[in-house]
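REQUEST FORM: STRUCTURE PREDICTION
Request ID: SP-0412
Submitted by: Lab K.M.
Chain count: 1
Length (residues): 252
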Amino acid sequence: MQKDVEQWKSSSHINPHERRLILWNLGFFSTAESLTANNIVLAVYRNVTNPECRQYLLRQAYEEAVHTDTFIYCCDTLGLDPEEIYNMYKTIPSIKKKDDFVVELTKSIFDPNFTTEGMENIRKFIHDLIGYYVIMEGIFFYAGFAMMLALKRQNKMVGIGEQFEYIMRDESLHLAFGCDLINTIKNENPQVWDAAFQEEILGLIKESVELEKAYSFDACPQGLLGINAWQFCDYDEYIADRPSGVVNVTMP
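STATUS: Completed
RESULT:
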């Protein structure tokens, strides 16, 4: 990251708008990865009994820990204020709204007395899996990935950009696994996937897209070379269509 450090210290290489974009993304991801790890270790793992799935969840938990360490490494290498970065989930409204939305979506399976017995509890479990995999990892992560990789294409902050590429590779696999898990539970319990529940999930996905659009404008209000905030919003909608289609929720 030596070149990244040199560029970060030079106002001629990284302008204030790009600096804001980098700070916002490091602030969001440095805490968002902890949320995902908590979901896997404390909630999802104990409610999934398939041994192959459990093996993958253990691998995913390890990868999330590596991602968290990566973002902390990036922040430390650039000499950023940890108090500012690690508390953005509290101080930046668009980040806070995304994190609060996911925490609210996935809180039921954190109940120590929660079980997957009965149709209503299975529905709650699917609801929370969609909140975690489809919305958090499948929608909330990708605008940030696109922003950082847009910088990398301009030969700016290449070290961080490469690390984001590896993380995006992992998250794409996590999303694919999550959708397979959701679809398998649906196929085993088709009665839980009724029209009312589908409509509820569709509403959550639509709301998450609006939150991600607000974040896109907040993190990148002036746009970057070749892409602006409105195009990031179009990308948010495209990304939301992809996992939503996999779980058979058709976006209009």
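NOTES: The mean pLDDT is 87.
Reviewed by: T.R.
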